[in-house]
Amino acid sequence: MKSLQRTPWPVVAVFIFPSLLGFLLFMAIPIVAAFGISLTNFSGGPRFRFLGLTNYINAFKSPSFLRYLSITVNFTVWTVLLQLVLGLAFALMLNEKSRGRNFFRSVIFLPNVLSSVAVGLVFSLLLDPGRGPVNQFLVSLGFPAPPWLSGEKTALPTIIMVTVWQNFGYYMVLFLGGLQTISAALYEAAAIDGAGPIRRFLSVTIPGLSPIIFFSVTMAVIRAFQVFDQIYILTGGQWGGGPAGATSVLVFDIYKNAFSQFRFGYAAAESVVLLVIILAVTLIQQQGQKKWVSYDVV
């Protein structure tokens, strides 16, 4: 601590400056600029005027905006839930000493390092309603061929399925790391006290993994609210997030308003609303974690 206090401030500034410059250029200044643009009718030209909160009022009055927000929340809830449940389930299975567990760990984690564009293109071919091998296989077995990405009721669940498949291996690795930090003595003590597998899971595993669960939930929620590339590729780049806007999340609508209709002011207002929602959810999680997250060394 004394050596830190004696460090000359110019030396400290030299080490802080690169990170501070990156934060200002790529985070702080764009956020401030977006908020400023959201208060205008800017459309890309030199002439624009100040509108105040008109863009925000129009957004919340728009049925389409509220629908896209609802689709985003629906997508977020299901992807976060399924990714964490599957990640934890496979982590528990592959944490046990078994033959080939390292191979299965690698196979399950592999989709996470693949490009979302490549994954989207592959699944759009596999799930093609007419010529896709998945539907041809189902028809050969006598099952009906689902419309997958071309049906209003099946498009969003299909995208959720693809997103979960690609990402849950990342959370499995996080949970595996957390499981290996839990002392075996705690499980032995719980077993001696007569605790069964479910009780040991609830009383030892979950508290031991609570910091990892908190981090995973936070990151999964932020990533889900910002989803764009999977939907853009899987729906064929349709402006409406097809079919019939069934998969149009809020980021997709921001993209459409900004780069198709050149309503940069309105799109900036939507992005600020999305930022506030993510920030609010994160702060709620941050406050709530004090009641259930345990950072005690186990």
CATH topology: MetI-like fold
CATH top level class name? Mainly Alpha
Secondary structure class reads: mainly alpha
Mean pLDDT: 89
Radius of gyration from the alpha-carbon trace, in angstroms:
24 Å
First-to-last CA distance: 28 Å
Say what oligomer this is.
Answer: single chain
The amount of helix comes to over 70%
Low-pLDDT segments: none
Number of helices: 13
Number of strands: 0
What is the CATH homologous superfamily assignment?
Answer: MetI-like
Largest sheet: none
CATH architecture identity: Orthogonal Bundle
Summarize the structure.
The chain has helices spanning about 1-5, 10-40, 55-60, 65-95, 100-110, 115-125, 135-140, 155-180, 185-190, 195-225, 230-235, 250-260, 265-290.
Notes on the structure:
This protein is mainly alpha-helical and 298 residues long. Helix content is 70%, strand content 0%.
Keywords:
298 residues; mainly alpha; MetI-like fold; 0% strand; globular
List strands and helices in order, with pairings.
Blueprint: H1 2-5, H2 9-38, H3 54-61, H4 63-94, H5 101-109, H6 116-126, H7 133-140, H8 155-179, H9 184-192, H10 197-225, H11 229-234, H12 250-259, H13 264-292
Helix pairs in contact: 2-13, 3-13, 4-8, 4-10, 8-10, 9-10, 10-13, 12-13
